[in-house]
């Protein structure tokens, strides 16, 4: 049967419209969550940690019927942990009409992207961005985190240095970035308040391969303890090169250095590195079933960010279930609700920061394990 051209066009147009409606109907059957993580670059393992936590939560939620009958669908958006890529990733999330984000992972990228997410009404829960600058003084309504801030982590590190390590002279280094410099400054300030001598406060260039010059400065300063604010690639090199150059000094860093990849970089020199990390929920007997769910899939339940990402996904799901798939209502619900999670009681203040968070100090070992540090 021959169909006139104009009728063909009408039929084709109707077909396209029908397909679009079907696509919308299909999309409406799921709730989309973007994982904004470093999928490329030197910090991809932190993104993997977040993916493991989110995947475990999503599997459990979907197996139980989803959220009000809708399954969760996740997608990865890469910001490479780069501040310049943060807004690019945020605009992609907004353009894809996704209203919920787990991430961003790194503070610099999170700070750069947060105004876009907040202005566009996208609920963001980061399990790992610790810089106070993300939330302090911003009046954001849609930005939350399931990890403490550097002005909680820094004092915890400084308290350990003052009361347990008891060094004579401390050198404080950082990577000149939002996260690293911020927490290094927090530690320095707390040490000075306690009259602990800070012999050196200096930035290094992230991505360099030779830190001989700074190690020479550490020797000259007579430091017997080094605090480094930054991530594991540089900390690993500092540890290894210090050992190679005969500098016997204890080193400590924030959760950004607590990555199993540091063992391959530092070798045996990593033994005894001190690190502040979120308390490990995997060690609690009441979380045994959850730990098994992680391990059954070959995932690490005791990493730095897996449980925080799991918690972020679960509180998001519970909030959507309670108030519906409406980002503004979900944000309102998060602000006023306390959640009982494997990581403990989760409740936020008006800024989207946790009301309480614990940063124990761990001793890192050359076999990749860690133990609570005693001194």
UniProtKB/TrEMBL annotation:
Entry superkingdom: Bacteria
Pfam families according to UniProt: Peripla_BP_6
CDD domains named in the record: PBP1_ABC_LIVBP-like
Keywords: Amino-acid transport, Signal, Transport
Start and end residues of each Leucine-binding protein domain: 30-367
Example GO BP: amino acid transport
Signal sequence bounds: 1-27
UniProt keyword Protein transport, yes or no: no
Record InterPro entries: Leu-bd, Leu_Ile_Val-bd, Peripla_BP_I
Entry annotated with the keyword Transport: yes
Similarity comment text for this entry: Belongs to the leucine-binding protein family.
Name of the protein: High-affinity branched-chain amino acid ABC transporter substrate-binding protein
